[in-house]
Specification:
The structure is a homodimer. Chain A is an alpha+beta fold. Chain A has one domain: Arc Repressor Mutant, subunit A (Orthogonal Bundle), CATH 1.10.10. Helix content of chain A is about 50%, strand content about 15%. Chain A is built from 5 helices and 3 strands, in the order ααβααββα. A 3-stranded antiparallel β-sheet of chain A has the order 1-3-2. In chain A, a hairpin with a 2-residue loop joins strand 2 and strand 3. The model of chain A has no long low-confidence stretch (mean pLDDT about 85). The interface between A and B is large, with 43 and 43 residues. Chain A binds a DNA duplex (30 and 30 nucleotides) through helix 3, helix 4 and strand 3.
Chain lengths: ~130, ~130
DNA sequence: AATTATATGTAAGATTCCGATATATGCAAC
DNA sequence: GTTGCATATATCGGAATCTTACATATAATT
């Protein structure tokens, strides 16, 4: 019964990941790198912030992360935490720009969708 | 160099088509069926109303139209106009409900995306 | 005569995503 | 003490979706 959501998710996954990383500004403390997140953390953050409306599957997330890394938008640091390996992802400068670009692209797209889906038909008369 | 848009279009095509047909309420005149549109007309309408921001390709549109027809959401009427065959699509009652459902699903999705992409990271204590 | 706009459609291929599966640790319950 | 759950990363097969290019055809314009 996963309601809708996943259907529209197509094409927005990269944007979500990039934006999440972009808005993690050095959580203070001893962490030197800004915007570090690991895969599992990303899925949890998305689930929590959207109140379960959007859920990222691992089968979709990890390939995207790997691809973004290949494209030079992310860099990884593997650390051992509690005896387990954890892989942190953070944005490169290029990735940061890509994040901003993607978000603004998506805003434009949403605006266009609004004119399609939420415009009453009578406004279509342009004279 | 296709400017963004198309990237996010994934998964929204059906919604767009259903909504366009749903909001065409018997354009008056002699037309008996409400919401009749043909494929080419749909692409033009989307292009015009989004000022070129969103462009549907025929290779994507026609398969979607055929599938929606198979699913019983659309019915077709083929007529000859100016010596050419033209295929009109209109919503069935089921298709009408599907249109409303899809649009409201998409609104929920957009709301979720807003909380992800447009939420200021003020929680991160900007000391 | 050639091009553009109109009009519908198919086929090959790439991309993207989901679900299942595999592996492995820490912890709480029982 | 082992079963199950949360944490954690990752791959694979398959399905769905979209793009590009192609095929066909008429009417109007140049």
């Amino acid at each position: 019964m996963d309601t809708s959501s996943n259907e529209f998710l197509r094409g927005t996954l990269k944007t979500i990941v990039l934006k999440l990383l972009a808005e993690q500004p050095a959580t203070g403390e001893a962490k030197s790198r800004p915007g570090r997140m690991y895969g599992y953390e990303i899925t949890q953050a998305v689930k929590e912030r959207t109140k379960g409306e959007i859920t990222l599957s691992f089968g979709a997330l990890y390939p995207v992360l790997h691809k973004l890394e290949q494209e030079g938008l992310l860099i990884t640091e593997t650390e051992e935490v509690d005896g387990r390996l954890r892989k942190y992802y953070s944005l490169t400068p290029t990735g940061n720009k890509a994040a901003e670009q993607k978000v603004s692209d998506f805003e434009r797209f949403m605006e266009a969708m609004r004119t399609l889906l939420l415009t009453p038909p009578q406004l279509a008369t342009g004279h």
